[in-house]
Records
---
Amino acid sequence: MVVGGGEVAARKVALLQKAGAKVTVVSPELGVSLATGVKAGEITHIPAQFQPEHMGDYALVIAATDDAGVNEAVAAAAKAKNIPVNVVDTPHLCTFIVPSIVDRSPVVVAVSTGGDSPVLARLIRAKIETLVPASYGRLAAMMAKFRDKVKARFDSVNARRKFWEKVLQGPIAEKVFAGQDQAAEADMEAELAQGSAATDSKMGEVYLVGGGPGDPDLLTFRALRLMQQADVVVHDRLVSPEVLDLVRRDAERIYAGKERNNHAIPQEEINHLLVRLAKEGHRVCRLKGGDPFIFGRGGEEIELLMQEGVPFQVVPGITAASGCASYAGIPLTHRDYSQSVSFVTGHLKDGTVNLNWEGLVQPRQTIVIYMGLVAIEPLCRELINHGVSPEMPIALVQQGTTQHQRVYEGTLATMPGVVKNQDIKAPTLIIVGEVVRLRSKLNWFQPTD
Ligand code: SAH
């Protein structure tokens, strides 16, 4: 039974229902969400002020009214019948407390301060939320399916524990996290069929991780978790030092380079390096700037992994276009100015830029150019030659989303000159389109450097 009809009561009711409880609400009036639940027949409603005779044989009672007198009466009536009672925000009237929970059912983590500071409990909970992947629930559910089989397969408790530890910390769990549940189940069956010998298999795995454009806060939870789990990290120049700082301290770091015309390790060799490291049994994090599948050659790297039977997963990252545009106050699309956006590479081949100019110069389209700094002059010239106004606004974002971010604005006519007169540092992203004008109104990010 929950006494009270407002928002606090509604939140308690929702949690109780999620745990499978049948709930009766006592309150003369109901807020919208509770009223909806009553209408749908999911909640029983007693439309009255609480009276001691309402105290039936409930399993739990929660008082969530803003009337201290009513709350006290509820607590007294419950205690008289030995029913556990919780009065929201009033620890001394409670016979039990409701912890803050991280719900990965069937896995549940509860955080309690014994009622001293629910806000602190919530903050701690938020931290744990970021540490425990959402897929732990699915992982636990899958392990439940295999419990009996594992028991039958290994007769000592020790052998079983070892087996589970291996499964939960290895590629099988990783597959569940990556949404490859069927593959994970097949692996479990194979492990069980082959026994412990197979669980000692030396094959490692590769995580192809998008590290985002620079600001470490823009990493995904999954990226961070895998960065902390890998024993070897192969990174390139675009990965910011702040992001690199977040890989496991004792992980081996291999710099794979990639400066323009100065590839520290040729792509072919990187592909083979990843295969070799994984085959040696390492958990390898291939950490790339931005998103691995946007001008990141991620496709080539996993193609070889696929061929060689190396388990891998791909973690998307925030690509430079999204990061730089947001942090420069330039929406890439806008109802009034731009209905589409194209991501293109300005990389020069034999000194010229080969792009589908007709397709690019459509009206109301934003163009984002990666790797375009060196070719800025031919880029601007070709756009004008293909009919774009020389007055079209263009922005160049240097080291976007980092504390060194700088944005240079101009027009197609002026930008080559702007670039010539500045000491521009890589990486830079170019944005062309009417949307660039919005920056004068929408710029919010203030880098400290
Ligand atoms: N996979 C990456 C892009 C790699 S290509 C991604 O999704 O972002 C390299 C180009 O990305 C650079 O030449 C530059 O144009 C752009 N770039 C990447 N990070 C950037 C940043 N922080 N600021 C500006 N441009 C960036």
Note: The first helix runs from residue 7 to 18.
---
Amino acid sequence: MRERVWELGARTLIMGVLNVTPDSFSDGGEFLSPERAVERALEIEAEGADILDIGGESTRPGAKPIPVEEECRRVLPVLERLRGRLRIPISIDTTKYEVARAALELGAAMINDVSGLRRDERLADLAARSGAALVIMHSRGTPETMQQLPPSPDILREISDHFAWALARARARGVATEQLLLDPGLGFGKTFEDNLLILNRLDMFADFGRPLLVGPSRKSFIGHLTGRPPHERIFGTAAAVVAAIFRGAHVVRVHDVREMRDVIRVADAILHAGGPPASRDPTG
Ligand code: HH2
């Protein structure tokens, strides 16, 4: 990850979410002013996150795409103000080349591409040139269309096929294997049952030999099970985080960093009791 190296497998890493948007499904509008966003970023670090993921475009189901200029206007002032103020690396949650390029210039060390290179393969060129880590996430359709798609006949196969394609594209464009992470994209065009299945079978993606990132935080499948609105899905999120850890997740993307840090500490300790499981080393 540029000049940094993340050690994976010893403990589960936390990616703290900061959405600088008016319309994100759970924290939309909360951190739209750069001052509030910076405050929350510093808090996310203090709460124990290992990386800060900043996004300027909501990917909630039905969300309309926004222009590059608007996305830059939201996230770049926050990145500028954070320069030199965080010890943890920053990830930019974007599918747009221009946004990622500007964020890397301001010091971001990871590109979190929820389109998994489907929108713009040049994101891989940026990773290759800068050495930034690249998250390849699987999404069915785009946020605007994903709820209208018919269910996948075999969601696990569909995700695996996408990972294989995107890893090959990234490598062809010069990204080193060590820079790549995989994310099955909970909630992105998946049915309720798909999301549960993905979490329960997460270990099947270990065969790719890359670290696995998952983002169950406050998502609607948790609301579906608990009947609770996004801000009250912390316990449900905790259950999904623990399940993901026991099925081999290396990084979890969460809003409630302080709470999930405790959850992860306990889950990791149980997981490692009796020696570290061999399957946790993503390189096999
Ligand atoms: N989920 C969201 C956004 N980005 N990135 C990765 N790698 N994995 C995810 O599961 C993921 C993601 C959606 O959550 P959130 O950012 O809270 O909402 P919104 O897209 O409405 O801003």
Note: The mean pLDDT is 95.
---
Amino acid sequence: MAAAVAPAVERAAAGIKNQAVLDFLRKPKMLLIGGKWTPAKSGKTFETINPANEEVLALVAEGGKADVDEAVKAARKAFEESRWPRLNPHQRARMLYKIAELIEQHADELAEIETLDNGKAVTQARAIDVAGAAETFRYYAGWCSKIYGETNPSDPSMFNYTLREPVGVCGQIIPWNFPLLMACWKIAPALACGNTVILKPAEQTPLSALRLGELAQEAGLPDGVLNIITGFGPGAGSSIAEHPEIDKVAFTGSTEVGRLILQASTGNLKRVSLELGGKSPNIIFTDADLGSAVPTAMMGVFYNTGQVCAAGTRIFVQQGKYDEFVDQLTKFSAGMTVGNPLDPATKMGPVVSKEQFDRVRNYVEIGKREGAKLTTGGEAAADRGYFIKPTIFADVNNNMRIAQEEIFGPVAAAIPFKDENDAVLQGNDTTYGLAAAVWTRDIARAHKVARALKAGTVWINTYGAIDPISPFGGYKQSGFGRELGKHSIELYTQIKSVYVKL
Ligand code: NAI
Ligand code: MG
């Protein structure tokens, strides 16, 4: 088996610079349960593919219910019996700092693993995903020693205080668009608060999470504190969502699966936080700095090949500048370097999978049928690999499916608007509410529109800025609960009130 797989791995990973990546790819990809790497109980594996060349990168253990049960036992044991939740906060912080350091030491290798598995441009994987992963661990390391309770103004005969305690065993189900970064957004705050974790990476992109698991072990994280179950949604994912011994589930992914997660939580009333889809409006007034708005709007929708939950896919441009804006956006986008994501010059790689490729191309056909005007792109950009050219539809009506449904690929819808009122009405006319942006030189209007938009994040004269210091999450059907900042600490703790008779 190993002999047959090795040459294919070299072909699948052609173009990488780090020998460590090949060494990693050649190792069996197993589940991390209770500090040990083990195959799935069923013995099953699944393929993970390089979307740039459609070659198999690795066979990965297909975890199922029986494996989740084992992982839950290990996580429960670590939570109830190990020192982890009761560790001196400085020591817990040291562990998280160590993981951040190791991520940085292996940054080039992790960036290449991410690019091979996901297809994202390697320079972006290095600068955003891997750098952000280390920063997130470092940020939450700082929180370990700052998780406060309170003393309350009780009756003089009593002393009342609160303790902020970990929730327990946390299941974390993540998507394929930012595999390593999403793993860190979930794991780092959970560990900072003293919880134990069962992480399920997306079946399209399991590799960077497995490498992170190895690094966490190298850092000395106690056995059972972080367990990783690779596998599919139905099976591994659903077993986590339903499990009676899991205290909290955090999910990032489609709104459709978010509903299933919530339904599955009713059995033991586990805590749920959901970060779901979006169809975010990017609103550009005629007085905006177009020199900055055009390229930023372009990256706002095409960054990560459009596979971003907060992507600015509905570009609203005020009448008067609409034609000029669409012309410039079309020119810039047509000139974007699409190609081999391992090439440092590449700005846009392939979409993650055949399924996503078909989905996006189908939406292009829907847009044409709905009568929107295709100004650039729409077709495949290579014979092999899941490459799609940056695609812009003009003359879009906000009621069209391409303006209402999350496409999750490099497709922008440019929509004209009349005035401030119209911009807010159309911008909010969506079932989603993850993010939004407004571009104007009028400072009062900028803040008024920011308040009126129903979205969890609003950018003014920029797009896409995200930092672990600030909460991220959705209004409406984009989900609930806020990750990052102190808000993740709230997600991963519960409060105990203690009365003392004096
Ligand atoms: P998905 O929601 O099915 O997958 C996300 C994660 O949930 C994966 O780890 C998957 O294995 C897991 N999952 C799937 N079914 C599950 C179930 N029944 N129980 C528990 N876990 C389950 O997303 P998918 O199918 O990969 O992509 C479909 C669409 O979802 C995309 O085109 C995009 O519109 C949206 N999406 C949104 C993301 C976001 O960041 N908000 C990320 C990924 C996808
Ligand atoms: Mg799915």
Note: The chain is about 40% helix and 20% strand.
---
Amino acid sequence: MSEEKHMEYVLKLVVLGDAAVGKTSLINQYIENSFKEDYKPTLGVNIVTKNIPLKSNSNTVVRLVLWDLAAQSKYDLSRQMFFQGCSGALFVYDITRPVSKNNIQLKWYKDLLKFAGTRSAKEGTYLLLGNKSDLTDTRRITREEGEELSRELNAIEFIETSAKYGDNVEKAFETLVDYIINRPNAKLS
Ligand code: G3D
Ligand code: MG
């Protein structure tokens, strides 16, 4: 009996966006009950992992390591560490709060450039998410405005999500993972 070769990739993804846009809710919705949480108070981050089988190869497992800023993070001190070794990012804004969208450009994208390096930014290994799509009555940012920002940032894709109801949540994470795994010269460890 021949032994099957088992492969495991480890992918670190960072989730970026203003407080209360729904970063933790998106991760919890995606991870469901299978999550392992490892809160590092000194870094101000939650690190959760999830193993996902690769659709194209059943012997290959991708271990996702998701880094999420805690609410009261001393983030300014640990940014370098936050971005170290990351393969991709999810930028999240709240469709009811224009300030949270403006800060993607003013703050979060700049941080990615600064701390993850221009190479990573140029390769565009990140998605833009407009979260809370269920809040139709209080929406203040149109889908078109989200798409426009996504083009400006050269993001892989723009997706509206509802972490509350799960709409497009799996799609968002898997679009990013598929892109990273399948692109040429994938930087995986
Ligand atoms: P953060 O991790 O980015 O700081 P959280 O954000 O995940 O803690 O979410 C902040 C608040 O927004 C939470 O409400 C959460 O339930 C809510 N929220 C997150 N995603 C959605 C969504 O898709 N739709 C709606 N309607 N609400 C969402 P509370 O009241 O617990 O502070
Ligand atoms: Mg949070």
Note: Helices lie at 23-31, 75-83, 98-116, 118-123, 143-153, 169-182.
